[in-house]
TrEMBL record:
Pfam families: Acetyltransf_1 (PF00583). It comes from Paenibacillus vini. Keywords: Acyltransferase, Transferase. This is N-acetyltransferase. CDD domains: NAT_SF. Residues 5-163 form the N-acetyltransferase domain. Gene3D superfamilies: 3.40.630.30. SUPFAM superfamilies: Acyl-CoA N-acyltransferases (Nat) (SSF55729). It comes from the Bacteria.
Amino acid sequence: MSESLWIRLSQMGDAGALMEIDSLTWDEHSTPAERLVWSSREQYLQKCPPGSQLVAGIGEEVCGYLGFDHPTPLESNRHVYELNIAIHPAYQRLGVGRKLMEAVKQLAAERGVRKLSLRVLASNPGAVSFYRSCGFEEQGRLVEEFYLGGLYVDDILMWCPVEHS
């Protein structure tokens, strides 16, 4: 990576690149949903409006994102962000995901969020290991929650506290 990595909140113009990352990243090993293909840019922007993701890039290239949102509309749940992350295959294992995790922790602290949570399939041990290395711990497990590729797969619930200065 000769050029430096940048991270910012998502913008309207990022939709195409982020939709492409989704189509390249999500498959039966990383999500229980059918392969993620958005039907339109409008559908994508409805589900992922500008400002709801941190976008990482190098030079002019968008290379990954980390989405965050409150898991429910309840006021009593506003201290939690639920996360999802995807890195373009060409930029995986270069530290992009770790930088996005650091950035979301800082953003969450600035916004008064106390807890980050996410879900990961037990059939994706690389992702589980990555999340552990970023400070996440298992907080629960939905045993045999999904039937994927002829196997029953656990859904692991993970969390990380947000440190406030």
